[in-house]
Design brief:
The protein is α+β, with helices and mostly antiparallel strands. Helix content is 46%, strand content 13%. The strands form 3 sheets. A 5-stranded mixed beta sheet has the order 1-4-5-6-7. It has a two-stranded antiparallel ribbon with strand order 2-3. It has a two-stranded antiparallel ribbon with strand order 8-9. Strand 4 and strand 5 form a beta hairpin. Helix 1 crosses helix 2, helix 4 packs across helix 5 and helix 5 packs antiparallel against helix 7.
Length: 297
């Protein structure tokens, strides 16, 4: 059985906006936050340096996720080089070093806005370790280590770029964590360190499947996307889909793209309307976690 060769195409540059789960989610929750995040160069009444400072703010949960993703990337690349047993303590020490590096260099929303006097690297480190332990002890890791490793030369681990693709001809971004072939099948895994959101994550998996079909011409019944939840315990989310689900998905993406484009004065050039036409959506939970909350007073 011939193994599928995975290679992403290069798409020519276009200015038109591209759909993604995260982009539409922000647009749907708060149009003003969306403007600051995606159209910051069009902000006229705030100095550029101030916008840059705010855009670079991060949060403790986000950085925990970043550390875990980087450690998973390092683990898989290590398996590509050698299938010898993983030295878990050395692996966890690597994770601690990565976390200390990230936490020492970044500015956190929780501290910047006074919700916490400082971040707690020790508590974050414990969460990272829990995520990594849950994966190493999972049936998924055992399967990769014992079976999927046969095709490790074809693994795509954290593919470069932003995951640009085409969904039914529409520009979109589907950044995948880990793709790997197994004979004439392709598996797609995505790591999550936060809470399960079945509706959102199912749509994300559908996007991955469509992108794999579009980019690699793989039949639908040979594509297996899966969310791997790593905290507080190991769990998985898989989806099944047919022609009707695909039709509904494409229609949803088209409607969401058109809705975002309706806030552009020039959709082809992705030029936004005035910021005043992007309303705020005051909400204690939403605002507390927003980088740009001080700009709204």
């Amino acid at each position: 059985m011939q193994t599928i060769e995975l290679k992403f195409p290069n798409y020519p540059f276009t200015s038109i906006l591209g759909w993604s789960i995260s982009r539409f989610e922000m647009f749907d929750k708060c149009k003003r936050q969306y403007f600051y995040q995606y159209y910051s160069k069009h902000v006229k009444d705030v100095p550029n340096y101030k916008i840059s400072i705010l855009k670079e703010l991060t949060s403790v949960p986000l950085e925990v996720g970043n550390v875990v993703h980087d450690c998973m990337e390092a683990l898989l690349k290590r398996l590509q080089q050698s299938d010898s047993k993983i030295d878990e303590e050395r692996f966890f020490s690597f994770a601690d070093e990565k976390l200390q590096e990230y936490f020492s260099k970044k500015s956190f929303i929780e501290v910047y806005y006074g919700y916490l006097p400082s971040v707690d690297p020790a508590a974050a480190s414990e969460r990272v370790r829990t995520c990594l332990k849950n994966f190493i002890g999972s049936p998924c890791f055992s399967w990769i280590y014992m079976k999927a490793i046969i095709h490790r030369t074809g693994w795509m681990i954290e593919p470069p770029g932003f995951g640009e693709t085409r969904l039914d001809g529409m520009k979109a971004y589907c950044k995948m964590d880990f793709l790997f072939p197994a004979g004439d099948e392709v598996y797609i895994l995505d790591w999550k360190t936060g809470a399960k959101d079945q509706a959102k994550h199912a749509a994300q998996l559908m996007g991955y499947a469509v992108a794999a079909n579009s980019n690699f011409s793989i039949p639908w019944n040979r594509i297996f996307p899966k969310i791997i939840y790593l905290y507080p315990y190991y769990d998985e989310l898989e989806i099944s889909f047919g022609e009707q689900e695909l039709t509904n998905f494409f229609q949803t993406i088209r409607e969401q793209t058109e809705e975002m484009q309706s806030f552009c004065k020039n959709a082809e050039q992705n030029l936004p309307r005035d910021i005043s036409e992007f309303p705020t959506n005051p909400s204690p939970g939403l605002c507390r976690n927003c980088k740009f909350q001080q700009l709204c007073g």
